[in-house]
Amino acid sequence: MRRLRVFDTTLRDGEQSLGITLNVEEKLEIARQLVLLGIDIIEAGFPASSPGDFESVATIARQMKGVAICGLTRAVEQDIDLCAQALRAAEHPRIHTGIGVSPVHMAKKLMLTPEQVVERTAAAVKYAKKFVDDVEFYAEDGFRADPNFLVHVLEAAIQAGATVVNIPDTVGYANPWEYGKLISFVKENVKDIDQVTISVHCHNDLGMATANSLAGIIAGAGQVEGTINGIGERAGNTSLEEVIMAIYTRRDEYGIQSGIRPKEIAATSRLVSRITGVPVPDHKAIVGANAFMHASGIHQDGVLKDRETYEIIRPETIGVPENTISLSARSGRHALQHRLQELGYDVAGEELDSVYHSFLELADRKKEVFDQDLYALMGDAGAGPQGILLQHMSIATSGVDTATATVTLDLAGEVQTDAAVANGPVNALFSAIDRIVGVPAVLEDYTLKSVTRGSEALGDATVKLRYPDGSLVVGKGISTDILEASAKAYLNALSKRGRGGEVGK
Ligand SMILES: CC(=O)SCCNC(=O)CCNC(=O)[C@H](O)C(C)(C)COP(=O)(O)OP(=O)(O)OC[C@H]1O[C@@H](n2cnc3c(N)ncnc32)[C@H](O)[C@@H]1OP(=O)(O)O
Ligand SMILES: CC(C)C(=O)C(=O)O
Ligand SMILES: [Mg+2]
Known about the structure:
Cofactor: Mn(2+)
Bound molecules: acetyl coenzyme *A, 3-methyl-2-oxobutanoic acid, magnesium ion
Distance between the termini: 77 Å
Subunit structure: Homodimer.
CATH superfamily of the largest domain: Aldolase class I
Function: Catalyzes the condensation of the acetyl group of acetyl-CoA with 3-methyl-2-oxobutanoate (2-ketoisovalerate) to form 3-carboxy-3-hydroxy-4-methylpentanoate (2-isopropylmalate).
EC number: 2.3.3.13
């Protein structure tokens, strides 16, 4: 199998994302994780850019072993001097130098003729070779260059000693078939190209960085450059995790392998997101929070029967825990029953129907139903108010210490409504229920706690009623509405009276 080198530029091109500046410690933490991931070359920064970036590159070069450490420069001697200095302690140092080669870059930005650019190319590579053996040359904006001129520049770089030639699509302008064709053209026309490694470096301005990189790899590139989570200037760089997993998932067809340990992908993505402060979109390929989640009933049923129905990558492969079924109002009985079984509840038949009914009521009010919700639901489902149903309730508060509650109850088919005023919404609610039911008990205790995650968390209310004969009845109620949870708990306690629900005197 052909071996692909993976070149990570999260710390250099990734750091060029708007609003990101990483300090030495932050860069070092990411670099350590990149080594665990199995990256071959870490581009640690642009040493001439600032004293801080120089220090970052120097520190990473000193501390990271078993990986090549690279620094970027312009085709400028002073940049190369600083880069060489920063890389001095590296086990495998690489200088990445280069210059713009497209007509617009040469004429408008550099204000150099094509022949001057060729001269600067050769001079920069030669100069860098004085310090290190491993010199990568980048032909900036290479995709928009005249292909024949590109051949000329690359030959100058190779002759001067470059070990790697990088052909960037700097502005993300390429289509995959064009980029692949350019790499093939370079392979076929550049003298001594077989003596060096071709590198692909794509940007995502048209959302094609991954596709373009893969096209370049198929055409013969031996190195891919990119960043974790695809961060980078403008619309970002190639997402390395996407390229790696495309090649890994279809390895028989690609016939290419890398030294990456896929199990470290999720952890690396989380770390980069945390340190850079750039969130990963939920739907992002490979590393998005939803990338392995199955939300709809038909998909969940399929996955439970055979994961391959809707899964091309096992989440464990990239280090994501296996529970990929997200319960919501779009889930069916199979998914609910499966999760309940995993949580230790054996429910089937009519009981499952009844729990599913309560589950849907809850799910319609919550985006996602978590395990804690299910625990609460199972407790509630078995102990729901029997004989007394809460049909409707409304609370109005005015000022800090006055509340009016209106309650409608269904007492075994007889519907009654009443209202009460009290010094708070819960007291008003319980008083209104008392007025309908005629409760002889005294409220001894009332507690409310949140049992699940998120802003729509379930409220779990507990009510203790003391009856004149001294017996104590405990009622529980859950709801996303804490007042409804309170009313349900109160009614639950009332409904237990006389049915063996007393817990003591
Ligand atoms: C596609 C890429 O990602 S390229 C890498 C981008 N990264 C960065 O720019 C890193 C952060 N940059 C910096 O810290 C600064 O811009 C520095 C230190 C590199 C240069 O700062 P300054 O010397 O003040 O120059 P400034 O950035 O204003 O202009 C760039 C100069 O470099 C020239 N230049 C740009 N690229 C190259 C190159 N590859 N080789 C030689 N010269 C170059 C420009 O033509 C311009 O030259 P001029 O001053 O003669 O007009
Ligand atoms: C400096 C080079 C490698 C680059 O980042 C680009 O052209 O996008
Ligand atoms: Mg770039």
